Amino acid sequence: MVLLMFVRMVLEPKAGFYENPIATLDFASLYPSIMMAYNLCYCTLVTPEDVRKLNLPPECVNKTPSGETFVKSNLQKGILPEILEELLTARKRAKADLKKAKDPFEKAVLDGRQLALKISANSVYGFTGATVAQLPCLEISSSVTSYGRQMIEHTKKLVEDKFTMLGGYEHNAEVIYGDTDSVMVQFGVSTVEAAMKLGREAAEYISGTFIKPINLEFEKVYYPYLLISKKRYAGLLWTNPDRFDKMDTKGIETVRRDNCLLVKNLVTECLHKILIDRDVPSAIQFVKNTISDLLMNRMDLSLLVITKGLTKTGDDYEVKAAHVTLAERMRKRDAATAPNVGDRVPYVIVKGAKGAKAFEKSEDPIYVLENNIPIDPQYYLENQISKPLLRIFEPILKNASKELLQGSHTRSISISTPSTGGIMKFAKKQLTCIGCKTLLSNSGQTLCSNCKGREAELYCKSYLN
């Protein structure tokens, strides 16, 4: 099995909310291009002793930033660079055919083909750095990453040296972030069109300083742009100066299933108000209203449900987890409806004794509704929504924690039992077959017609789990 080992090369981000366009410059097929440009291969790697014995002149070898030595292609072309050339040439053909294709099915096939070729090309670097694979060669993988880091730093220096007021430009350019194969630049201009023009100029100028086939491309503009930290940002993505394509997010809680739906809705709406509506005060007020609703128990229970996968039995977990403890508790109540290994376990956090741990307060949402058990709003405020909110607002507000998590909107707390309004009024518990999990229509049954005859086996398995 081949494991991809991508070592990230990152320029420290300058966190903040950027209201001027940010141009993004990307290296096309960075790792494969480095391997081709510098002829990195098993058969071109030489030791210092080999260089002396073979009397190789300096102009015939490449000394990598990590200290390794490879012979140049004019002496011997590597096998890996040849493979990569074929893969990337085939990908270019597939992408060219994709542009011409009209049929949706044909487009899907060609898109899948170019993506497969891209992954295959990247995996050539990956298997050289995976020590558990069949062909590890850390000299190659470390050389690739060291060249990549050098190229990112070289790009930053050239951008900030060339695009200056002394050089005849309106503003001094500033690189605000660099991640693996891309660099994000603030040219200081106020329009997307101007940022795109300067981005293309910078890409062309810097590409000319690299060995072929290494190529820096202008790809897109973010405007506005919220840079939170490494691998965490959000912004409106523009590839056309007339209209933005979409709101692009990375590393932000908008898709994670481990968070309750309230977090996703709250973060998404805040980003919409900040980036699309350009109305930060409205986003702040929305947060305050949501926190007030949560503490006053005006929140639909369906928004507070957290789900996590049950990957093994309770005894196999080293640390007690909320969903695992709940699954064990539900099995004692009713084995037919209890979750098994492989299922996702939905739960909410309810009020408990002072100092109680989260795993002691986890409960089945339907059981909560049936028994009018109060939820713990403070848990959701402190452990679910506060960190995602602060990540978004800290680059924007001077004292985000005080502004959002303190004040009159946090002083009124209601511990009423949850209502069955909203989506949760349609929720009901249904029996499932303990063998195949098919829904059962008869409440007196525990097995479906297909699993009948296997009672002893399935009951033993259910008991052991």
UniProtKB/TrEMBL annotation:
It is an enzyme of class 2 (transferase). It catalyses: DNA(n) + a 2'-deoxyribonucleoside 5'-triphosphate = DNA(n+1) + diphosphate. Its main location: nucleus. Residues 9-396 form the DNA-directed DNA polymerase family B multifunctional domain. Its EC number is 2.7.7.7. One of its GO terms (molecular function) is DNA binding. The keyword DNA-binding applies. GO terms for cellular component: delta DNA polymerase complex. PANTHER family: DNA POLYMERASE CATALYTIC SUBUNIT (PTHR10322), DNA POLYMERASE DELTA CATALYTIC SUBUNIT (PTHR10322:SF23). Belongs to the DNA polymerase type-B family. This is DNA polymerase delta catalytic subunit.
